[in-house]
Design a protein that fits this description.
21 helices, about 15% strand, elongated, alpha+beta
Length: about 625
């Protein structure tokens, strides 16, 4: 018996307990001795089994005790559930352990925690109620286990679940319900990648761990509800204090904006009050959505839609971190205030923004009335300068408006196809900003602006009026060189008409920029300037060097661009023609043979011959 006690003390394997019996039989021991040794062996194995079961039970109780300790100090629900699943895997000696929780909103159950899993599809699995072993446990609230899942017909197999289980390589599965009273909230599993049965004590152990997991989940829910209740009380207290502060801010803001209007303050002053009271960044937009105050970079595509909603509702509209208050007059937008702030303004703060929008609208209406009156005065003066230049005192009237007619000016005529009031308002605003004059006549507006670059001003006018109206506006311009404005007006009109005839509606240009077309429409038809700008470098080179480049150029175009025929016409070698054309290219620049440029050069050669002879 002593030898078996020694084996028990060193926790020998079951196979080693056969050793004493085998040795005695080999030594020729008698039947009585062998029988006694066999009885001692059986007794020792029973003791060994009892000791192993007790050790296992102690480990299980220790794990349950540790789990209870985790729950007592619950801080992180995910960490507690992960610890429970990990202990289930260790105590049952399985390859994988995992937990699913029921989703009341979707009516199914989903994977919450896994330990030992390697397949991504398995970790993201969702099970319909009643589908698979887990779905059956979640629906019935009864533990189920199977030694071979795929061969077990007790469960409703689905392709999704079977594929995930097969990818994970699971065969034997045990599932027990997570219960809160009579309610099943999920399932705790232990699974093996090879076939094996699960003993009743293993089912009981996993059920105990599941009970702890259910307690952890319920405790976390209660803690969350407690925190939420405390948060609500704190928020209520904060709202009360904020409401009191908001009332004081609203009263102060109202008094300050009223005082601004009475003292003749402007839009910028109102914006400063709003920013000081509400914080954040404020952008004030005019009726066309252009910034009067603030930065356009703070705006996005949703502001226009929010502004329309604000005008329809008569209230502030929120879009993310942007709050928009817009005011209209007669169904036409007048101004929009856009407040960008990370803080959430209270209802009182939003009313402050609405009041600021109304005050801004009043200021803009007043400014518009003043601008309209000044625009009428400026328009009447420009009409008289263009169509009634014989009237006395025109220069004095212009000087009183800040327009000095003895300085360089450009007359712009912009043609449009409608929205006369908007076009007239745009022209009046442009004239006021540039210290010029503006008038509206039918489907065109006339601008007299300081400057000496007709083409630049024409293109700018066409682009800006097109943007304002939403459809193409075409502008022609002429420099005012001391002559009557009526001549400049007629030339600018012809430029605009020429652009339209050329299919360049929406563009702007002067007569000089239209090339030989400018000769046809320009007042005075400055032929020398056209010749100098087109073939002047070639003519000057011939005059300095005594060469025949102009004649070579004429012969080249006359022969249809043929080098050999050009050489025959001039009685020179083809190489000489090539050298002369290279020099011409250097003088006239790249692209001189392009169709449009070539046409102007040929016209210039013809005019030069008609004017100066061959």
């Amino acid at each position: 018996m002593d030898v078996f006690l020694e084996l028990l003390v060193r926790e020998a394997s079951a196979v080693e307990f056969e050793g004493p019996v085998l040795r005695a039989r080999a030594e020729g021991a008698g039947a009585e001795t062998l029988e006694r040794l066999e009885r001692d062996k059986v007794a020792a194995l029973r003791v060994r089994g009892m000791l192993r079961r007790r050790a296992k039970r102690e480990a299980e109780l220790s794990a349950l005790f540790d789990t209870a300790g985790d729950l007592a100090g619950l801080r992180d629900l995910d960490a507690v559930l992960a610890a429970i699943v990990r202990r289930a895997r260790q105590l049952l000696g399985t390859d994988v352990a995992y937990m699913t929780l029921n989703d009341p909103e979707r009516g199914d159950t989903f994977m919450r925690v896994t330990d030992g899993s390697s397949a991504a599809r398995f970790r993201g699995l969702r099970l319909a109620m009643g589908a698979g072993l887990g779905g059956l446990v979640a629906q019935s609230g009864v533990p189920y286990n199977t030694a071979d899942y795929f061969a077990d017909e007790r469960f409703r197999h689905t392709v999704t679940i079977d594929d995930a289980v097969h990818e994970e390589g699971l065969v034997a599965i045990l599932g027990v319900p997570l219960r809160l009273g009579a309610q099943v909230i999920g399932v705790l599993f232990a699974a093996n990648r090879s076939a094996r049965p699960f003993a009743p004590e293993e089912v009981a152990l996993l059920s105990s761990l599941a009970a702890h997991a259910a307690v952890a989940i319920d405790t976390a829910r209660l803690l969350e509800e407690t925190r939420a209740a405390l948060t609500e009380l704190s928020e209520a207290n904060t709202l009360i204090r904020a409401h009191s502060d908001a009332i004081e801010r609203a009263a102060a803001a109202h008094d300050r904006m009223t005082g601004l209007v009475l003292r003749g303050g402007g839009v910028e002053d109102v914006a400063a009050v709003v920013t000081e009271v509400l914080g954040g960044r404020l952008t004030v937009l005019d009726e066309e959505g252009r910034p009067l105050v603030g930065d356009a970079a703070d705006l996005d595509a949703g502001v226009s839609e929010a502004a329309r909603s604000s005008r329809a509702l008569g209230r502030t509209v929120r879009r993310g971190e942007v709050f928009v208050a817009s005011v209209d007059v007669g169904a036409a937008p007048l101004c929009t205030l856009v407040l960008r702030t990370a803080a959430r303004p209270t209802d009182t703060d939003q009313r402050i923004l609405e009041r600021a929008a109304q005050v801004t609208a009043l200021l803009l209406l007043f400014r518009r009335s003043v601008a309209d009156a000044e625009g009428r005065v400026r328009g009447e003066l420009l009409d008289d300068l263009v169509f009634r230049p014989e009237l006395d005192g025109l220069h004095d009237r212009a000087r009183r408006l800040g327009v000095h007619l003895d300085e360089p000016h450009v007359l712009v005529v912009a043609r449009h196809d409608g929205q006369r009031e908007r076009a007239a308002f745009w022209a009046s605003a442009q004239a006021a900003l540039a210290h010029g004059l503006a008038a509206a006549r039918g489907h065109e507006v006339i601008l007299l602006l300081p400057g000496d670059k007709p083409g630049v001003l024409a293109r700018r006018a066409a682009a800006e009026l097109t943007a304002s109206l939403g459809h193409p506006a075409t502008a022609g311009a002429a420099a005012v060189l001391g002559g009557p404005l009526s001549e400049a007006y007629q030339e600018a009109q012809r430029c605009a008409d020429a652009l339209r005839a050329l299919g360049r509606g929406g563009d702007g240009a002067s007569a000089a920029e239209l090339g030989f077309v400018g000769l046809l429409i320009g007042e005075g038809r400055d032929v020398p300037a056209f010749l100098a700008g087109t073939i002047g470098p070639v003519v000057d080179y011939d005059a300095r060097r005594g060469t025949q480049l102009r004649a070579t150029l004429a012969a080249y175009f006359g022969s249809g661009g043929s080098l050999s025929r050009t050489a025959e016409t001039l009685h020179i070698h083809v190489n000489t023609v090539t050298q002369r054309l290279d020099r011409i290219g250097q003088l006239l620049g790249a692209g001189w043979q392009e169709p449009e440029r070539a046409l102007e050069i040929q016209l210039a050669l013809r005019l030069h011959r008609l004017r100066d002879g061959p």
